[in-house]
Write a structure and sequence with these properties.
Elements lengths: L2 H9 L12 E6 L3 H4 L11 H16 L4 E5 L12 H6 L2 H6 L20 E4 L11 H7 L4 E7 L1 H14 L3 E10 L3 H14 L2 E3 L1 H9 L8
Parallel strand pairs: 1-2, 1-4, 2-3, 4-5, 5-6
Helix pairs in contact: 3-9, 7-8
Length: 219
Protein backbone atom coordinates (compact mmCIF):
# COMPACT_ATOMS: atom_id res chain seq x y z
CA UNK A 1 0.00 0.00 0.00
CA UNK A 2 2.98 2.31 0.35
CA UNK A 3 4.27 1.87 -3.20
CA UNK A 4 2.77 5.19 -4.40
CA UNK A 5 4.54 6.91 -1.47
CA UNK A 6 7.80 5.18 -2.38
CA UNK A 7 7.45 6.14 -6.04
CA UNK A 8 6.71 9.77 -5.14
CA UNK A 9 9.76 10.15 -2.90
CA UNK A 10 12.08 8.26 -5.20
CA UNK A 11 11.09 10.64 -7.99
CA UNK A 12 12.25 13.44 -5.66
CA UNK A 13 15.67 11.82 -5.21
CA UNK A 14 15.13 9.78 -2.05
CA UNK A 15 15.83 6.07 -1.71
CA UNK A 16 19.44 5.82 -2.89
CA UNK A 17 21.29 2.61 -2.06
CA UNK A 18 24.09 2.52 0.50
CA UNK A 19 25.03 -1.09 -0.16
CA UNK A 20 27.01 -3.32 2.18
CA UNK A 21 30.37 -2.21 3.49
CA UNK A 22 33.39 -4.32 4.37
CA UNK A 23 33.18 -4.94 8.13
CA UNK A 24 29.70 -5.55 9.58
CA UNK A 25 28.22 -5.91 13.02
CA UNK A 26 24.74 -7.15 13.90
CA UNK A 27 22.59 -5.01 16.20
CA UNK A 28 19.72 -6.80 17.94
CA UNK A 29 17.35 -4.12 19.17
CA UNK A 30 15.22 -4.80 22.25
CA UNK A 31 14.25 -8.43 21.67
CA UNK A 32 13.56 -8.97 25.35
CA UNK A 33 10.50 -10.47 27.04
CA UNK A 34 8.95 -7.03 27.63
CA UNK A 35 8.38 -6.69 23.89
CA UNK A 36 7.56 -10.31 23.04
CA UNK A 37 5.87 -11.97 26.03
CA UNK A 38 2.10 -11.41 25.95
CA UNK A 39 2.05 -11.15 29.75
CA UNK A 40 3.70 -7.75 29.24
CA UNK A 41 1.52 -4.73 28.34
CA UNK A 42 3.95 -4.17 25.46
CA UNK A 43 4.21 -7.77 24.30
CA UNK A 44 3.08 -8.80 20.83
CA UNK A 45 2.79 -12.09 18.92
CA UNK A 46 3.68 -10.12 15.79
CA UNK A 47 7.31 -10.33 16.87
CA UNK A 48 7.62 -14.12 16.94
CA UNK A 49 8.81 -14.31 13.27
CA UNK A 50 11.24 -11.48 14.04
CA UNK A 51 12.87 -13.58 16.75
CA UNK A 52 13.19 -16.57 14.40
CA UNK A 53 14.68 -14.52 11.55
CA UNK A 54 17.06 -12.70 13.87
CA UNK A 55 18.22 -16.04 15.29
CA UNK A 56 18.97 -17.23 11.74
CA UNK A 57 21.12 -14.16 11.11
CA UNK A 58 22.91 -14.61 14.43
CA UNK A 59 23.78 -18.23 13.65
CA UNK A 60 25.52 -17.16 10.45
CA UNK A 61 27.14 -14.12 12.07
CA UNK A 62 28.67 -16.26 14.82
CA UNK A 63 29.89 -18.85 12.35
CA UNK A 64 31.66 -16.09 10.40
CA UNK A 65 33.02 -14.16 13.39
CA UNK A 66 30.84 -11.09 12.89
CA UNK A 67 30.40 -9.09 16.13
CA UNK A 68 26.93 -9.03 17.69
CA UNK A 69 25.47 -6.43 20.06
CA UNK A 70 22.17 -6.57 21.92
CA UNK A 71 20.20 -3.68 23.39
CA UNK A 72 17.53 -3.55 26.05
CA UNK A 73 15.75 -0.74 27.89
CA UNK A 74 15.61 -0.94 31.69
CA UNK A 75 14.89 1.61 34.41
CA UNK A 76 14.77 1.81 38.19
CA UNK A 77 11.57 0.47 39.79
CA UNK A 78 10.84 3.78 41.51
CA UNK A 79 10.68 5.62 38.17
CA UNK A 80 13.32 8.19 39.13
CA UNK A 81 15.13 7.79 35.80
CA UNK A 82 12.00 8.57 33.79
CA UNK A 83 10.88 11.73 35.59
CA UNK A 84 10.02 14.60 33.24
CA UNK A 85 8.51 15.13 29.78
CA UNK A 86 10.20 12.12 28.18
CA UNK A 87 8.89 9.82 30.87
CA UNK A 88 5.38 11.23 30.63
CA UNK A 89 5.36 10.80 26.86
CA UNK A 90 6.98 7.40 26.50
CA UNK A 91 7.38 5.60 29.84
CA UNK A 92 4.01 5.81 31.56
CA UNK A 93 3.08 3.61 34.53
CA UNK A 94 1.99 0.67 32.40
CA UNK A 95 5.20 0.61 30.41
CA UNK A 96 7.39 1.20 33.46
CA UNK A 97 6.29 -2.16 34.88
CA UNK A 98 7.68 -3.87 31.80
CA UNK A 99 11.01 -2.04 31.95
CA UNK A 100 12.03 -2.69 35.56
CA UNK A 101 15.76 -3.32 35.81
CA UNK A 102 16.78 -6.73 37.06
CA UNK A 103 13.52 -8.50 36.15
CA UNK A 104 12.95 -11.29 33.64
CA UNK A 105 11.10 -8.85 31.39
CA UNK A 106 14.28 -7.02 30.38
CA UNK A 107 16.32 -10.14 29.66
CA UNK A 108 17.28 -10.94 26.07
CA UNK A 109 15.01 -13.63 24.64
CA UNK A 110 16.76 -16.97 25.34
CA UNK A 111 15.97 -18.23 21.83
CA UNK A 112 18.61 -15.82 20.54
CA UNK A 113 21.27 -17.79 22.44
CA UNK A 114 23.39 -14.81 23.45
CA UNK A 115 27.04 -15.75 23.80
CA UNK A 116 29.34 -14.63 26.65
CA UNK A 117 31.33 -12.32 24.34
CA UNK A 118 28.22 -10.56 22.99
CA UNK A 119 27.67 -7.24 24.75
CA UNK A 120 24.25 -6.17 26.03
CA UNK A 121 23.78 -2.40 26.02
CA UNK A 122 21.18 -0.88 28.33
CA UNK A 123 19.98 2.19 26.46
CA UNK A 124 17.92 5.04 27.96
CA UNK A 125 16.27 6.15 24.70
CA UNK A 126 15.12 4.75 21.38
CA UNK A 127 18.42 4.93 19.53
CA UNK A 128 21.05 2.35 20.42
CA UNK A 129 23.63 5.14 20.01
CA UNK A 130 22.10 7.74 22.35
CA UNK A 131 24.22 8.02 25.54
CA UNK A 132 25.57 4.50 25.06
CA UNK A 133 29.06 3.09 24.36
CA UNK A 134 27.95 1.45 21.09
CA UNK A 135 29.79 3.87 18.81
CA UNK A 136 33.03 3.27 20.70
CA UNK A 137 32.61 -0.51 20.44
CA UNK A 138 32.02 -0.27 16.69
CA UNK A 139 35.03 1.97 16.14
CA UNK A 140 37.19 -0.43 18.15
CA UNK A 141 36.23 -3.22 15.75
CA UNK A 142 36.59 -1.09 12.59
CA UNK A 143 32.92 -1.66 11.78
CA UNK A 144 31.53 0.24 8.79
CA UNK A 145 28.21 -1.64 8.36
CA UNK A 146 25.42 -2.16 10.88
CA UNK A 147 22.84 -4.87 10.25
CA UNK A 148 19.77 -3.83 12.24
CA UNK A 149 17.30 -6.40 13.60
CA UNK A 150 14.68 -6.32 16.36
CA UNK A 151 11.87 -4.00 17.36
CA UNK A 152 10.02 -1.80 17.08
CA UNK A 153 10.20 -0.63 13.48
CA UNK A 154 8.43 2.62 14.29
CA UNK A 155 10.50 3.29 17.40
CA UNK A 156 13.91 1.95 18.35
CA UNK A 157 14.72 0.36 14.98
CA UNK A 158 13.95 3.60 13.20
CA UNK A 159 15.83 5.71 15.78
CA UNK A 160 18.87 3.45 15.62
CA UNK A 161 18.85 3.45 11.81
CA UNK A 162 18.68 7.24 11.71
CA UNK A 163 21.56 7.59 14.18
CA UNK A 164 23.70 5.09 12.28
CA UNK A 165 22.93 6.92 9.04
CA UNK A 166 23.94 10.24 10.57
CA UNK A 167 27.19 8.64 11.77
CA UNK A 168 27.90 7.56 8.17
CA UNK A 169 27.53 3.80 8.56
CA UNK A 170 26.22 1.49 5.86
CA UNK A 171 22.81 0.80 7.40
CA UNK A 172 21.22 -2.52 6.45
CA UNK A 173 17.81 -3.24 7.97
CA UNK A 174 16.98 -6.96 7.72
CA UNK A 175 13.42 -6.82 6.40
CA UNK A 176 11.92 -9.94 7.99
CA UNK A 177 13.98 -9.56 11.17
CA UNK A 178 12.37 -6.30 12.30
CA UNK A 179 8.79 -5.80 13.42
CA UNK A 180 6.19 -3.78 15.26
CA UNK A 181 3.00 -4.25 17.24
CA UNK A 182 0.83 -3.10 14.34
CA UNK A 183 1.39 -3.93 10.70
CA UNK A 184 0.59 -0.40 9.48
CA UNK A 185 3.19 1.16 11.78
CA UNK A 186 5.67 -1.45 10.60
CA UNK A 187 5.02 -0.97 6.88
CA UNK A 188 4.95 2.83 7.02
CA UNK A 189 8.19 3.13 8.96
CA UNK A 190 9.99 0.39 7.04
CA UNK A 191 9.22 2.34 3.87
CA UNK A 192 10.48 5.56 5.42
CA UNK A 193 13.67 3.93 6.71
CA UNK A 194 14.36 2.53 3.24
CA UNK A 195 13.86 5.95 1.64
CA UNK A 196 15.85 8.00 4.16
CA UNK A 197 18.24 6.10 6.40
CA UNK A 198 19.24 2.63 5.24
CA UNK A 199 18.71 -0.24 2.84
CA UNK A 200 15.83 -2.52 3.80
CA UNK A 201 17.19 -5.87 2.64
CA UNK A 202 15.75 -9.42 2.65
CA UNK A 203 17.13 -11.72 5.33
CA UNK A 204 18.39 -14.25 2.78
CA UNK A 205 20.46 -11.53 1.11
CA UNK A 206 21.89 -10.45 4.47
CA UNK A 207 22.82 -14.05 5.26
CA UNK A 208 24.44 -14.49 1.84
CA UNK A 209 26.52 -11.32 2.38
CA UNK A 210 27.77 -12.55 5.78
CA UNK A 211 28.63 -15.99 4.46
CA UNK A 212 30.67 -14.50 1.63
CA UNK A 213 32.75 -12.19 3.82
CA UNK A 214 36.49 -12.60 3.28
CA UNK A 215 38.51 -13.61 6.36
CA UNK A 216 39.98 -10.10 6.68
CA UNK A 217 36.50 -8.67 7.30
CA UNK A 218 35.93 -10.75 10.41
CA UNK A 219 36.82 -9.85 13.95
Amino acid sequence: MYEPVRDFYMAKGFGGRKGFGKRPAVLVIDLARAWIDESSPLGSRNLEPVVANTAAILDVARANEVPVFFTIMAFDPAGIETVGPVGRKVYNNVKAKSFTRGTKMVEVDPRLNRQPDEIVIEKPRGSAFWESPLQSYLIGRDVDTVIVTGCSTSGCVRSTSESAHNLNYHVIVAAEAVGDRHHLAHECNLTDIDLRFGDVTPVDEVIRYIRNLPPAARR
